[in-house]
Design brief:
Elements lengths: L1 E4 L2 E2 L33 E4 L25
Antiparallel strand pairs: 1-2, 1-3
Length: about 70
């Protein structure tokens, strides 16, 4: 899973959900290469699913919280 800003990946590394992740748990991003968001920026979640010999997961939910700096 990658988070893109205006078509460019902004996560330091992609989030990977596999059998090592607990069901119904939160997975936080490791870090961002660009944290600033300005007017007209577009954020997009890019999900790549591979079966790897098993069943693909279902029901992915994403939540993004943006806090505005009052400065």
């Amino acid at each position: 899973i990658q988070l893109k800003k205006n078509g460019t990946n902004i996560l330091s590394s992609a989030l990977v959900l596999d059998s090592a992740n607990a069901a119904l748990s939160n997975e936080d991003a490791v870090g961002f290469t660009s944290a600033a968001v300005v007017v007209d920026d577009t954020l997009e979640v890019d999900v790549t699913a591979t079966a790897g010999g098993g069943t693909l997961g279902l029901g992915l939910f994403m939540s993004l919280t943006i806090r505005e700096d009052a400065a």
